[in-house]
Amino acid sequence: MDARLNLFASQTAGKAFKHFMSAGKVLRDSALPTATQELVSLRVSQINGCAVCIDMHTKEALAAGETPVRLHLVAAWREATVFTEAERAALALAEEGTRVADAAEGVSDEVWAHAGKHYDEEQLAALVILVSFMNAANRLNIITQQPAGDYVAGQFH
């Protein structure tokens, strides 16, 4: 599959993408644990069907020390016993924040309160921005049909 648009070759996309990737760096450097960031990024990308982001975040998670078992179970995290309560709270928030059209109400008070038990205000801010960021990244990649499979961990750092 060939991409519809080379996001790195277009002058406009290149300028915007530079800022977009800077936001990604701010999130990577935040107080939100790396494992949580990668699990949330992977789950949002699974929901949206963004192959290139699934490829990227699976490889980034493995490079950061994540286990294959946990990565394989992200899609079924509710039934899996390998995630902490904090990670489960983040995944629930990520799902409700991604499925706003499906759920209509967005993130429920219950899911927000559960996340607030596990993350401080800075971490919650990073989590909310990460969910929004990943939804935007997924849409960019899906619209332009970016191919998956060739990503190398650390490629965009």
What do these coordinates show?
The chain is mainly α. It has one domain (31-143): AhpD-like, CATH 1.20.1290.10. 66% of the residues lie in helices and 0% in strands. The chain is built from eight helices and no strands. The chain has helices at residues 11-28, 34-48, 51-63, 68-73, 85-98, 100-103, 109-118, 121-143. Helix 2 (34-48) packs antiparallel against helix 3 and helix 5 (85-98) packs antiparallel against helix 7. It is globular and about 45 Å long. The model has no long low-confidence stretch (mean pLDDT 93).
Largest sheet: none
| Low confidence ranges | none
Number of domains: 1
**Helical proportion, percent range:** 55-70%
Question: What is the count of DSSP helices, taking H or I runs of 4+ residues?
Answer: 8
Element string (H = helix, E = strand): HHHHHHHH
- State the separation between the terminal residues, measured CA to CA: 25 Å
Q: For the record, what is the CATH homologous superfamily label? A: AhpD-like
- Estimated structural class: mainly alpha
CATH class: Mainly Alpha
Radius of gyration, CA atoms, in whole angstroms: 15 Å
Number of strands: 0
| Second-tier CATH architecture | Up-down Bundle
Q: Mean pLDDT, as a whole number?
A: 93
How much of the sequence lies in strands comes to: under 5%
Backbone shape: globular
Annotated CATH topology = AhpD-like
